[in-house]
Specification:
Shape: globular
Helix content: 10-25%
Number of helices: 5
CATH class of the largest domain: Mainly Beta
Number of domains: 3
Radius of gyration: 21 Å
Order of helices and strands: HEHHEEEEEEEEEEEHHEEEEEEEEEEEEE
CATH superfamily of the largest domain: Glucose Permease (Domain IIA)
Structural class: alpha+beta
CATH architecture of the largest domain: Distorted Sandwich
Bound molecules: zinc ion
CATH topology of the largest domain: Glucose Permease (Domain IIA)
Largest sheet: 8 strands, antiparallel
Number of strands: 25
Distance between the termini: 32 Å
């Protein structure tokens, strides 16, 4: 066998090994979900499991949660093809592919019109948008083709957090809004073209997830109005943090709520954030490759102990980073 072919098969089998989990004796869906930083409900949906108690030893579970795309039939001219997922979860990122010859195409979704670049566009459904049918419009040369996406609910649990009195001032609404806007401005800038070519790596070497994406949150006994916008890795101060994919450093500075923060811009409207770092090792404008050191875990800003908060946003909308480790949208 040619060496490159062997390398190809090795890569494929590694990817497959990460994409699935074979159920071992004594394992529960809850334990497996916890191990991979996902939820029982997400695994149930992905593997069409009606009753989580009916798990068989040796059963192979799919772990990667990227939605399957479907080609739409009978399109009006000038559209030649439109490919999109018909079913998605709240908080999930997805890709649409659309072609209308050489004509420029725009997609309207959730009240925002996005230009399509090279036939491809990434979008995300916000975590707190209600389940149901969502309209998506494809526009080219004055022709509008409307399709529908079904968004399904994902239960991700609740978490009540109590902040020490000296950190409570960080919850002031104007401060939260100003800092969020700063991050969103950075995410909206940066390169247009997609900089990554492979599934994303983990930003830390140890898989110790302490909070998954999408958990509803209450602070100091208040209402569950917000949710966790990323993944938390509970790791000791000083643990190295690496870029998970190629990008440009859009922000590298100390923020009140997010602490020492880094934002990477990855193109196609995607950015990733790293909060509460003890140390930052990159500068704004710097190009990074997957695996480059960008900082160290810490507990700066609105944090109750050393951890890395890691998030991915698509056009500013926070999305679950977990599926990106297996296959990007
Ligand atoms: Zn977090």
């Amino acid at each position: 066998m040619h060496r490159w072919l062997l390398a190809f098969f090795t890569l494929c089998s590694l990817a497959l090994a990460q994409n699935t989990h074979t159920v071992r004796p004594g394992e529960t869906l809850y334990r497996i979900a916890k191990q991979y930083g996902t939820t029982v409900e997400a695994l149930q949906q992905l593997n069409r499991i009606r009753d989580p108690r009916q798990l068989r030893v040796g059963q192979v579970l799919r772990l990667n949660g990227q939605p399957e795309r479907t080609l739409l039939p009978s399109l009006p001219a000038p559209f030649t093809s439109i490919e999109l997922p018909l079913r998605l979860a709240q908080g999930q990122a997805f890709r649409v592919r659309v072609n209308a010859g050489d004509l420029p195409v725009q997609v309207r979704f959730l009240g925002i019109t996005h230009p399509v670049r090279e036939g491809s566009l990434l979008l995300a459904v916000p975590r707190l948008h209600p389940p149901g049918a969502y309209r998506i419009d494809f526009q080219a040369n004055g022709v509008v083709h409307t399709a529908s996406l079904r968004v399904v609910a994902v239960e991700r649990g609740r978490q009540s957090l109590v902040l020490p009195p000296d950190r409570r001032r960080l919850l002031a609404a104007d401060l939260l809004i100003a800092e969020r806007n700063q991050v969103l401005r950075v995410c909206a800038a940066g390169p247009q073209e997609q900089l990554w070519r492979a599934a994303w790596r983990r930003p830390v070497e140890r898989e110790r997830i302490t909070a998954i994406f999408g958990v509803l949150r209450s602070f100091n006994g208040g209402p569950f109005r917000s949710y966790h916008e990323g993944l938390d890795y509970g790791l000791p101060t000083g643990t190295p943090v690496y870029a998970p994919a190629p990008g440009v450093v859009g922000l590298a500075e100390s923020l009140a709520v997010r602490g020492n923060a880094v934002v990477l811009q990855h193109g196609l409207g995607v950015c990733s954030g790293y909060w509460h770092l003890s140390r930052i090792t990159v500068r704004p404008g710097q190009r990074v490759n997957a695996g480059d050191l960008i900082g160290h875990v810490g507990s700066t800003g609105l944090s109750t102990g050393p951890h890395l908060h890691y998030e991915i946003r698509v056009h500013g909308v926070p999305t679950d980073p977990m599926p990106w480790y297996f296959r990007t949208p």
